[in-house]
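DM from R.C. (forwarded with permission)

"hey, sorry to bug you on a friday — could you get me a structure for this? deadline for the figure draft is monday and I only need the backbone to look sensible"
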Amino acid sequence: MWTVLSVTAIMAAASAVYAPYLYVELWPMLNSFSRVAAEPPKLAAGQMFDDYFVVQDLGASTFAIGEPRYYQLNYSYLILGETRALLFDAGSGTRNMRPVVDSLTQLPVTVIPSHLHFDHLGGISAFDRLALIDLEETRTRVRDGMFKPRRYDFLGMFDGLPAPAMEVSEWLQPGSSIDLGGRSLTVISTPGHTSQSVSLLDSRAGWFFTGDFIYPTMLYAFLPGASISAYRQTTGYLLSTLPADTKLWTAHCCRRDEDPAAPWLTIEDLQALDQVLVEMEAGRADYEGIFPRRYPVNGQMILGTGFQWNNQ
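My reply, with the result:
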């Protein structure tokens, strides 16, 4: 009897400690769903390129490319200069995004993934140039000249995808500028959702491209590699750096009670997230659920976290 109880206790403790890893391994087996909706949804903005992708012209030579039928409702951003273009995230790879990009520009295109998860890096094989944030952990993933994200960097088990291997064309130092010809973007390291997360600041347009660091709906701060303390440090840094009127273009749709469109937030939303993180740190924040724990942020966001000993 005591042996059974001891084994049960050890298994429960191990499950709690390794909850982020158990979650990602078990989720595909415990959830049955369609990766791609049968029909394109009604759009709030943008035009369907085909029966899968949507293109939304944001102005200032910038386009949002969405996957509104895909269950993650991803949006990538094509940012054009005079001499080159950046594609911020390569999409899920469910369909080939390259024809969409080629229809919008003839400039050479470099892909910068906001982070290494499957729904942002899965479509990378369609493109020739990859730029990555220059961190020790990204450099150490290079073997024989090829970069390959690790299992819990990529999380391909969600869609049954193997991690891609690719050559890195350009390493980007945090804080460096990318010259697109008549347009410059600043590379900002934004750990929290993952340790390798990166965002792009277009100071002239007043735009900040956030990836998965912040977006409408539930923020995933409970997967392997997420860190609440890093989230707090990053929100503090951004609030001290970004002008108050900066518009945040994010990676996952949709805003509350809206049909699909390029998702956006404001500095006020970033302030609301920071306030919740402060209250969590002080032990005053209310939450619902067990794993993930769901902390309400405001009308646009919920912050999902692991146990206190996960994702510190």
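R.C.: lifesaver. Residues 4-13 have pLDDT under 50 and may be disordered.
me: no worries. The two ends are 35 Å apart (CA to CA).
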